[in-house]
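Notes to self after the Tuesday call (sharing in case useful).
The group wants a holo model before anyone commits to mutagenesis around the pocket. I volunteered. Ligand is 2-acetamido-2-deoxy-beta-D-glucopyranose. Logging inputs and output together so the record is complete.
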Amino acid sequence: MMPFLLALFVLGCSVIHCGGVSKHPVILVPGLGASQLWHKKGKEPFYRSLWVYPHKTIFKLDSLVEDMKLNMNSSTGSTFDDRGHTVKACGFGNPKSLTGLVTSWNPFANPFPKMTSSDCDGEEFYEDDSDFDGMNKTFLKMLRNKKGANHVGHWLGAGLSLFDFCGSKIKDYLKKIAGIKNTWKNVHYFKDLIHTLEKKGYRANVDIKGAPYDFRKAPNELTEYYRSLKRLIEDTFSKNGNSKVVLVAHSNGNPVLLYFYNSVVTAEWKDKYIRAHVALGPPWAGATKTVKLMVSGDSVNIPFVKGKRLRPMQRSWPTVAWLMPSPSHGLWLWEEGEPLIKVDHYSYGVGDYRHLFDDLGYPDGYRLWQTVEREAVADLSKPPDVRELHVFYGINVPTAGHFVYTRTSFPDSDPKTVDERDGDGTVNRRSLEAFKKFRSSKFTNITHHAYPGKDHMDVLRDQRVLSFITNLVFSKEPALPPRHEKSRFPNAASCCGSGWQVPMLTVMVLGLVSTV
Ligand SMILES: *[C@@H]1O[C@H](CO)[C@@H](O)[C@H](O)[C@H]1NC(C)=O
Ligand SMILES: *[C@@H]1O[C@H](CO)[C@@H](O)[C@H](O)[C@H]1NC(C)=O
Ligand SMILES: *[C@@H]1O[C@H](CO)[C@@H](O)[C@H](O)[C@H]1NC(C)=O
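Result:
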């Protein structure tokens, strides 16, 4: 009897716990601007859609800016919303909110989307996105048949393209809206990945999870988010037969996770719960474009709108300060004297932020920058120290290198952008490739994949990326090299996950045996 039961136990272990047959659950972490945000004022019973909400973007831009703006406490350098104003990334855990970027698909059918507080806190609100395809054919048809349809599409597209925060040039943009379909394609976010996994038997809310967050904040103010994320990873692990999680992050989600790996969790915790991290278009060391957001703002491609109009909100976000090229990553990706902003013959580089903010008449900006610099800039020479890191990014797409103003255009008018040769259109290549400077770690298997001509959003739907992830999540984890020389059971971690389960199950089995 005993050998039989033991065999059963061993078999059970290899199937359920060792990842031999089972699949790894996936958790998605979005970038800047890619979590849907909801808000309520005072005692309102409902959360209302705030971001990205086409209706508001098109018709009430100034109120959107006001609602998205943060105030700063100048003694602490931390930020807060107006009193009685709550802003939240609702539906934490549910990946469906990350399928696309807008909360209301059909602004005519449902112009004022809202949800209750309990819906916001729960995981259930976001339904399946079946009418997500091409945004509801009825509406598309309506657009095509109507006179001036392109005009409507244009404006709607403009609203929708808000997400493409540091997005493509107006020219490309016009090309995109020429085919409305492409515009819809562009509002898809993790859709292709979610659908690809679903076709392979994955289920949203079971083994695909989403971890949206208030992207306005930098890691120093994401304490609560990190707590929820840690719990989400642990829960997802245990509800999926103790199969380790694969984290897939886009853009800003990557440095957000780098901070999590380095400052929130331990190496043991990572070994227990995380199989791999897949980084898509990661701005490890920021992006030049954020400096422009601080100076003159960015219209995020909304036609006829000047960057200045959106600047109050963009300037107030700790993330924007956090993603400014930093002099203290220890990597010297940007030289001290290299210009980021030029005004006539004067230039500002990474070492001149104090002057820059002084000259902008925006000393709070410097305070904000100092705070994130002190509290949240990750030491990039410190690797994430997960066991596998797979990095995917576009290259050879013209990407802002620096910005040129004249004495009269500084700082309120849009500058001339000088592209540097390389990047993915949003993030500079040196930042995308900063992982190459991570202090090498014999514990991390790093692979990287640069795709010429692919932009910051393309990596989300590139077939090569999707296939890689699909293979990864079904593959068996290689035996982990021990982190400590002292470890006497080097392969213990590759089987059966956590240490305590083995003795516990053994006790149960032995207990059974003795009663039989
Ligand atoms: C700023 O932060 C300090 C320290 O936490 C706190 O005492 C003060 O009330 C805050 N001020 C505002 C305006 O919130
Ligand atoms: C598409 O939108 C129309 C108009 O709002 C609505 O009546 C219809 O049910 C929607 N179709 C689907 C498949 O959701
Ligand atoms: C690194 O990871 C990739 C993808 O999972 C895998 O194909 C490769 O064999 C790994 N390399 C090592 C040395 O484990």
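Two things stood out.
The first strand starts at residue 26 and ends at 29.
Residues 106, 109, 131, 136, 138-139 surround 2-acetamido-2-deoxy-beta-D-glucopyranose (ligand 2) (CB under 6 Å).
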